[in-house]
């Protein structure tokens, strides 16, 4: 079955984890009795976690035609002849209005009906509650036909299917790499720098390659910088004593970012401790951002990925940098959007769920249960924990 990303805005993202089947339609009948059958409406609606009657009714409302979904047979019919592209376009509008979170764009939302008969979407990732436009025709149908409470088995099966699709995608990527490597007639092998006494040897077809690791780059920078050059790097507009070491590191990060310096070189050029460098990189990347922190995470994820290159230690330091930045910078939006930032880091595979949960637990043990950052991070952490327990 052909799959596509949920949401038109994610169509070009090869690593997007939320998928749905491509719509399949069939024209039946003729004359006044002609109808369009959405053959796989049940599968499409299941991927969106919405009743298929909602999507069928939405098509009817938007097209001004009678529509019907048979709960027993699973047949979805819309009167008239409608091509697949037109229905797919309407489905994208439905997803934007009734599936995706208005805050973070995540499609994992739940339809709620308030006591005042208002339709809302509650995001399981960031906790944001979206208010649906009640002027839309479909809202009256939803009020008359409220969604059933989600069954844990269905949710568990959906998550398992998503993980299986991700694994299949990763396996396909690895296979493509192997095929390309064979076509080039080369086999990728780990490289290393030659020992000092044979650096110029060129016999036996030996080809030495430069070690491009962060540690090797840092050593080369330190060897090349003379004392005078190092002083020039530290020279700023203000007197040196007026700036703290942390401020100097942040300024260096911002300067390298403007020059387009790569993440490995940026990290290797910083002269603080590992923790100081991580805090400086995070603050330098977000300095001046007023809102939309999650979008900046996506845009500059390669720099954040370089920070966590060594696994657990790097991830915990990065999460600590998020905590320190929210506590230090006088920007309430940074604290308010902490759940969105964590979600973006998680989706970009920069941090793993076990370290997010560990960081959150250690933060609560520190006696700061009432801190705003932990209250705002709580919905996302709870979502991670529930997802993990269901998958187990």
Structure explained in plain terms:
Keywords: GTP-binding, Initiation factor, Nucleotide-binding, Protein biosynthesis. The chain has a four-stranded antiparallel sheet with strand order 3-4-6-5, with helices on one face. Strand 3 (25-28) and strand 4 (35-38) form a beta hairpin. The protein is α+β, with helices and mostly antiparallel strands and 392 residues long. Mean pLDDT is 80; it is low at 191-204 and 235-240. It is built from 17 helices and nine strands. The protein is elongated. Helix 2 (52-63) crosses helix 3 (84-98) and helix 16 (353-365) packs across helix 17. The protein folds into two domains: 3-155, Defensin A-like (2-Layer Sandwich); 222-391, Serine Threonine Protein Phosphatase 5, Tetratricopeptide repeat (Alpha Horseshoe), CATH 1.25.40.180. Helices cover 53% and strands 9% of the residues.
């Amino acid at each position: 079955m052909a799959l596509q990303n949920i949401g038109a805005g994610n169509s070009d993202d090869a690593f997007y984890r939320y998928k749905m089947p491509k719509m399949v339609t069939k024209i039946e009948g003729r004359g006044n009795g002609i109808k369009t059958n959405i053959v796989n409406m049940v599968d499409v609606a299941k991927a969106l976690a919405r009743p298929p009657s909602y999507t069928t009714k939405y098509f009817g409302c938007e097209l001004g035609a009678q529509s019907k979904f048979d709960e027993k047979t699973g047949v979805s019919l819309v009167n008239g002849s409608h091509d697949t592209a037109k229905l797919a376009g309407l489905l994208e509008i439905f997803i934007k209005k009734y599936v995706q979170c208005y805050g973070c764009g995540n499609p994992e939302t739940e339809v709620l009906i308030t006591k005042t008969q208002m339709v809302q979407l509650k995001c399981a990732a960031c906790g944001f509650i979206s208010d649906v436009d009640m002027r839309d025709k479909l809202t009256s149908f939803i009020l008359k036909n409220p969604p059933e409470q989600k069954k844990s088995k269905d949710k568990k099966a959906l998550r398992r299917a998503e993980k299986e699709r991700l694994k299949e995608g990763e396996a396909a990527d690895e296979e493509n790499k192997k095929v390309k490597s064979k076509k080039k007639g080369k086999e990728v092998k780990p490289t290393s720098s030659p020992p000092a006494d044979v650096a110029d040897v060129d016999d036996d077809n030996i080809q030495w390659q430069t070690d491009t690791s962060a540690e090797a780059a840092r050593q080369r920078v330190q060897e090349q910088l003379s004392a005078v050059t190092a002083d020039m790097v530290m020279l700023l507009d203000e007197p040196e004593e007026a700036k703290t070491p942390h401020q100097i590191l942040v300024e260096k990060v911002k300067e390298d970012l403007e020059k387009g310096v790569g993440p490995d070189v940026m990290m290797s050029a910083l002269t603080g401790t590992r923790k100081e460098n991580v805090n400086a990189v995070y603050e330098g990347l977000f300095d001046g951002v007023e809102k939309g922190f999650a979008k900046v995470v996506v845009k500059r994820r390669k720099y954040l990925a370089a920070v966590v290159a060594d696994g657990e230690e790097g991830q915990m330091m990065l999460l600590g940098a998020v905590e320190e930045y929210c506590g230090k910078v006088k920007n309430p939006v940074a604290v308010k959007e902490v759940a969105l930032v964590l979600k973006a880091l998680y989706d970009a595979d920069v941090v793993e769920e076990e370290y997010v949960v560990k960081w959150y637990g250690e933060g609560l043990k520190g006696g700061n249960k009432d801190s705003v950052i932990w209250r705002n991070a709580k919905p996302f952490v709870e979502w991670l924990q529930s997802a993990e327990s269901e998958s187990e």
